[in-house]
Design goal:
alpha/beta, binds magnesium ion, Rossmann fold, binds guanosine-5'-triphosphate, seven-stranded mixed β-sheet, 7 strands
Length: about 250
């Protein structure tokens, strides 16, 4: 594994002018998402100074689906019923063309039993290096299926990122597939995850019911536009809605 520079002591600042970002609501901003690049290895990722938000979590937790739901583009990130669908770090740009003001990173999931041991180790190393050394990383969204709760691998990841979270890296746990839980199960899952999140944010989310979509979009906007966070009251620029994608029954 190649060596990487140490983590920066503070999160990067948004590079685009605040007034460019203020033209849309968080949801309208999400809908500007477009594919940027894909990389199998860390050193293939372009160095950027734009705030980046990484989606991490167990295989099949719903990371790619969450990105597609937030951006309202059903085939932006590859989602699949088969675990292990995402095998590269895929980057998506947000903001108007030419004024990218944030990047979403869809990462391969971990904990998928059918992956060969060497591939697992290689991938864990790539991901740990990414999380520790990606300089423009501003926030981490950990996707967790509340029916399984946080697993041992999630705990290891939390340990890896803890120093950066203590230095100001934003952190959110999304409890996915909330449509599979009753209201009381949702409330219980939320309180358990809040205890495990150590003061970090936790939100329920369902791609099927579009639950939590606005809240997550708002939070990611706030993370990447600290100075312009109030601008979300401005009129929305929303593209037409797409057909829903096939979700787990
Ligand atoms: N019912 C329901 N199914 C969902 C939801 N989100 C994702 N799914 C389904 O869960 C499966 C896995 O979704 P993905 O988005 O591919 O999961 P992933 O975390 O990207 O998986 P890897 O790329 O393997 O790490 C797919 O069949 C999705 O349709 C949800 O909110 N509700
Ligand atoms: Mg995926």
């Amino acid at each position: 594994m190649t060596a990487h520079s140490p983590a920066p002591s503070s999160a990067p600042k948004p590079s685009a002018p605040a007034q460019a970002a203020s033209a849309v609501t968080p949801m309208g901003w999400m809908h500007t998402a477009r594919f940027l690049t894909t990389a199998a290895q860390l050193h293939h990722l372009p160095a950027m100074d734009t705030p980046e938000i990484a989606f991490v979590g167990r295989s099949n937790a719903g990371k790619s689906t969450c990105i597609n739901t937030l951006t309202q583009k059903k085939q932006l990130a590859f989602a699949s019923k088969k675990p292990g669908r995402t095998q590269h770090i895929n980057l998506f740009a947000l903001g108007k063309q030419g004024v990218t003001d944030a990047v979403l990173a869809d990462l391969p999931g971990y904990g998928y039993a059918a992956v060969a041991k060497m591939d697992k180790l290689r991938w864990q190393q790539v991901m740990a290096n990414y999380l520790v050394s990606r300089e423009n990383l501003t926030g981490i969204v950990m996707m967790c299926d509340p029916r399984h709760g946080l697993t041992e691998l999630d705990d290891i990841l939390l340990e890896v990122i803890r120093p950066r979270v203590e230095q100001g890296l934003k952190f959110l746990i999304i409890l996915t597939k909330a449509d599979k839980l009753t209201r009381s199960e949702q409330a219980k899952a939320l309180s358990i995850a809040r205890l495990q999140a150590g003061g970090g944010e936790v939100k329920l989310f369902s791609a099927l019911k579009k639950q939590g979509v606005d809240e997550v979009a708002q939070l990611l906007w706030d993370w990447t536009h600290p100075a312009g966070a109030a601008a979300s009251a401005a009129p929305a620029a929303e593209p037409p809605e797409e057909e829903p994608e096939a979700l787990d029954e």
